[in-house]
Amino acid sequence: MEQDLLTLAERLLDGSASIEDHHPLNLRGASVIQEVAPRVAFVEAFANVVAIDTDEGLVLVDAAGPLHAQSAHDAVREWSARPLHTAVFTHGHVDHIYAVRIFESEPGANPAHVVAHEALPDRFRRYESTNGYNAIINQRQFQLPQPIFPGNYRYPDELYRDRLDLDIGGVELTLRHDRGETDDGTWVWLADRKVLCTGDLFIWASPNCGNPQKVQRYPAEWAAALRSMVALGPELLLPGHGLPIAGRDRIATVLAETAELLESLVDQTLELMNAGARLDEIVHAVTAPPHLLDRPWLQPVYDEPEFVVHNLWRLYGGWYDGDPSHLKPSPANALAGELAMLAGGATALASHAEALSDRGEHRLAGHLAELAVQADPDDPGLHRVRALVFSRRADLERSTMAKGVFRWAATESHSVAHSA
After folding, report:
1. Distance between CA 369 and CA 350 in Å, rounded?
2. On the CB side of 179, how many CA atoms lie within 13 Å of its CA?
3. In this structure, are residues 69 and 159 in contact, taking their beta carbons and an 8 Å threshold?
4. In whole angstroms, how far apart are CA 190 and each of 166, 168, 193, 300, 373?
5. Among 205, 371, 390, 405, which is least packed, fewest CB within 10 Å?
6. What average pLDDT does the structure give for the chain?
7. Which candidate, 31, 45, 50, places its Cα nearest to that of 236?
């Protein structure tokens, strides 16, 4: 029998189990389903699904991604044979939307009624026009063997703007819109049961609010949404990723402290921006509150606070980082060539990069290794150093975002170094 999900969550919360042992965004295999409240089931997958049994059929909050949709569907069918009546997409990320078509393809099934925020169709259209770019991002972020990004999106049947109240088969659901990880975010409240479905506004990790390869995120509004959730007094929290949490006090703590982390990053960043600081200064000055860094539900295992600072700069300040040489720069390889000449050649840059890496000065080592390869991109010896430097950086990082980018760079150079 599978371990009780609520019990496992308690072990993670009290520190008797490690979040690394149950990573909230692990591309795990089969989905696991558990009834967590009367007529409410929670499907734990890479992206979770909530199934609600009503007198008119099932309501799903989210519908898993293409790699897990069949498994999520099968898990729900272990729990209930009722037809799918309604699906709510908490946002349009592709890991949350794909099982609906499987339910709709069942023998004798009627089309489901899909509800989402009014900004969601624009997201799907953007994905359709940038499929190749998103495929490359996914390959790099998750270290996949090839680029992958799905299409064939199930567009919603009903859109709402700020709030939508639904009564489906005697079950009342309130949909609320807030921008956070996305501009099309929805969270769902079952008031009579005190059940909160957060979507990705809570994911058992430092908020995914700075992903360096993705579009704009909204930290201040995200924090405000979490404060609104706390005010409702939820007794069961069903997140978009990670495990369900029971208990009003527990839930209030994890939501409020996630909000506190975001609010602190926003306040520090804006204070420095308003004082005229450059992005480089701000990135290295802003830190997360120390008392929050040990929280099991705020570990930087996917995104991390440093990336949120970059995202805040983009939100409030645009793309110019305050360094005038970056406004209209020379090509990167031209600058690298000049610096290599001053240093005595690209090999000298690479040698010093390796020495810095050996001393643990990995950020500086990364700069010099990259410059060396940009100055002479065909030299396998330079690529050997670049592969070493960025492999070490990947090994030292915790977040999926940083590991993915650094591992990708190391793999690029490893292939060049060993093809000579």
Report:
1. 5
2. 11
3. no
4. 10, 12, 6, 30, 56
5. 405
6. 96
7. 50
Work out the end-to-end distance of the chain between its first and last CA atoms, rounded to an integer number of angstroms. Answer: 53
Q: Which of 262, 309, 23 is nearest to 142 (CA)?
A: 23
What are 361's two structure tokens? 């000065």
Give me the residue label for tokens 């049947």: 157
Cβ-contact 370, 338 below 8 angstroms: no
Tens of pLDDT, residues 155-168: 999 999 999 999 99
Q: Which domains does the chain have, with CATH numbers?
A: 5-262 (3.60.15.30), 330-417 (1.25.40.880)
Tokens of residue 227, six digits:
């404060």
Could you report the per-residue pLDDT of 218-277, keeping only the tens digit for each?
A: 999 999 999 999 999 999 999 999 999 999 999 999 999 999 999 999 999 999 999 999
> Side by side, which strands form the sheet with 163-168?
163-168, 171-177, 186-190, 195-199, 236-239, 245-246
Tokens of residue 123, six digits: 């997201």
Tokens 């919360």 sit on residue: 13
Closest CA to 153 of 88, 91, 94, 87: 94
